[in-house]
């Protein structure tokens, strides 16, 4: 078990070995058990963590805030529109000051070609761990919780088919960070990963190359299809979710002719029937009900969305504990 985490940043799971990710999952399970039993876990006693949000959040904000309270620390939520950032204060100055005041800083900044650079600039100037609460490229807490949930459901995820499927949505133009993080992480665990999308919603080339390499090195496969039914066929897990075409179309416009032509990319009961009989449906949430997925699927017996959402709490607590309190 790899246990050396103290003081490191959590920007992408690419920065961590599989052995280190296994430790994160192990600690997540331990904290989950203790939470269920009411065992106190004051691992962040007297510690202050700042949570900076450039965008809205339900799960990420509250898993961090609740998790910090359950670990005995104090979470300081910061809406960046009320910070001096709104008047142009730099990432460097913000990071230096907040890291002198506390023990950790979480940041969500999903602006395309800005978010990850912003978080990295904070990391370069922070004396305390920086936690990526989602950027334009990565959502490591989400991918970790998804992996934990799949492992809980089937124990051995090797050679299980997991399909990451683009879905039609109109709620807002979403980052590519969830499918990108999943496409990189799941092949490291020997899964048969199928990435499905209509042409125009590509992930960056380097992601596909790295995902293929991860699959080759770990005994799984990584395939791409533009045939939605192929993705559902014989799948053990399906993750139909919208992502914006940020790579090829950097406009903020949510609805356009290209999107409207892909309305059929919806998770339906009929498509779920193509998968294995005990297929499980995942979604990072919030889901665009009626567009991305039929209510009868997300509310049905194959859905494990709430279990995955709950695991956001346990994984967040584990990562904070290890990085702020470890060896
Ligand atoms: N899955 C996720 O990150 O949810 P929020 O946007 O509500 O934080």
Question: Would you kindly provide a written description of the structure presented here, covering whatever features stand out?
Answer:
- The chain is an alpha/beta fold.
- The protein has two domains: 13-139 and 310-324, Rossmann fold (3-Layer(aba) Sandwich); 141-308, 3-Layer(aba) Sandwich (Rossmann fold), CATH 3.40.50.
- It has helices at residues 18-37, 59-70, 91-101, 115-125, 140-154, 177-185, 205-218, 228-232, 257-260, 269-272, 295-298, 305-325; strands spanning 48-53, 74-79, 104-109, 130-135, 161-166, 192-196, 221-225, 237-241, 280-281.
- A five-stranded parallel β-sheet has the order 7-6-5-8-9. Strands 2-1-3-4 form a four-stranded parallel β-sheet, sandwiched between helices.
- Helix 2 (59-70) packs across helix 12 (305-325) and helix 6 (177-185) packs parallel to helix 7.
- It is globular.
- The two termini are 13 Å apart.
- The structure holds phosphoric acid mono(formamide)ester (CP).
- The site of phosphoric acid mono(formamide)ester (CP) has 8 residues, from helix 2.
Secondary structure elements and their pairing?
Elements: H1 18-37, E1 48-53, H2 59-70, E2 74-79, H3 91-101, E3 104-109, H4 115-125, E4 130-135, H5 140-154, E5 161-166, H6 177-185, E6 192-196, H7 205-218, E7 221-225, H8 228-232, E8 237-241, H9 257-260, H10 269-272, E9 280-281, H11 295-298, H12 305-325
Parallel strand pairs: 1-2, 1-3, 3-4, 5-6, 5-8, 6-7, 8-9
Helix pairs in contact: 1-12, 2-12, 3-4, 5-6, 5-12, 6-7
This protein binds phosphoric acid mono(formamide)ester.
